[in-house]
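User: Structure please.
Assistant: Input sequence and predicted structure:
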Amino acid sequence: MASISRTARAGMTEAGLCPVREGGLRHEAKAALPSGRVGCRGSGWLVVRGCSEDREPVAGEGALGKQRRVGGRGLAGEGCWLVSDGVRSSSGRDPDDDLLLSAFVVCGVEQLPHDVLAAASGEHGTTLRARLQRLIEHGLVAELEPAAAGGESLVASVGRTPADLPLAREKALASRIGRRLRAVAQETAAAADHTVDVARLRSLCWSVVGLMRWELEHGLGEDAVRLARAWWPVAALATDSAWVNEFAETGERAAIEIRDPAALIDLLRIAAECADEAGDWLMAEARWVRVLSLARARKNYDVVCSTLTTLGGFYRRGGRLHRAMDVLSDLIATCDRVHDNRGALRALRDLASVLLAAGRAAAAVPHLVRAVTLAAEDDAVDAGTHAELLIMLGRAQWMSEKIRAGREAFSGALALLVDVDAEGADYVRSLLATPDDGSLPAKPSDAGAAWGSPCCCPGSTAAGSARSPSGSAAASRRWS
């Protein structure tokens, strides 16, 4: 069989049609059609032979549908026509079959549950069931598990690669699947722990990463970021740490690709919180350090301060007190730079706590003196917080062998507590009653809440206390 002529090929290009392979129709792709026509599988078009140049094939003849002429003499001695049926796929299947099969390609997996396939095809119930059954009969998909009553089974793609879809149609397909996957994450985040179907989440996790990769490769980075944000609150439930690392990196790469530093900071922060909850300290620290670097570069001091506060608590919980001192000192300097006295007060209190825990009482004294001064100047600081700072100052001075200064600080705390916290006042009296060469009594665990809390400054939170990612209590579980 002769190859298609240059004239025919030029006509095809001008008409915006897909090219036909050089050398004409492949032998294995021939299919006999009425009136001497030959169909080309795999190209999406039909080359029609046996027609004269002055006679077009009759529309509808041989169920060909839409027809267009390209070139004068495409095959030697015969008129050549390239015909698109406009309905049927090149493989002979319903084009919606290829759409459904393309869902596996877009998600980069071999297995998908029914609800994702329903979102991909826009079909539900018996209609989807009938389509899947037809594909099963043709050996293109297989059902891995019998569907339980009220449940759904997984479907695996085991046959040929589907025909290529137009890019716009593939993007629409990815968008529908993405909406469904986001909905699954949101439903899971809102569900009570005992109702969460962990097995179902794990069946979807790699399709989430696969879809994010596809979106990233096809200019849909914003959709990938949106999907990452939706899935982070349930990531700890989904699968193991290897998947979490891949998921985190893909989402962060998408945020970088779309040049959205705010989105990148958000994803890094959530990743760090989830890793902290799961006990993956290396991942948590690495993400928080990156958040800090990005926030500094953007001069986003709110994020800088919140991240330094979190890191201070993180290092303190891990027993890395010198690292905690470093970041809390950095936090104090940052708060001073932006004239945030309340932030500085909280950071001074936290730094002094770390220094006392490390046995460096003398070094804690100047920070506590400044904290007490800031508390006295701020009318929004309650008496309990002010008294706690004075008690801490008195302890630090006592441990530094400045007994008289320590007693003065205790007396100031007693004056603040006597009318607001009887138990706290009694404890301070026990401090004042301690002999100069004696050891100060420990703070009772049931002491008044006002002065015994970590910090009651307006807007304060204990450093590192908010460890769970927003949106789901279920996300506090470890990944295995």
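The chain has a mean pLDDT of 76.
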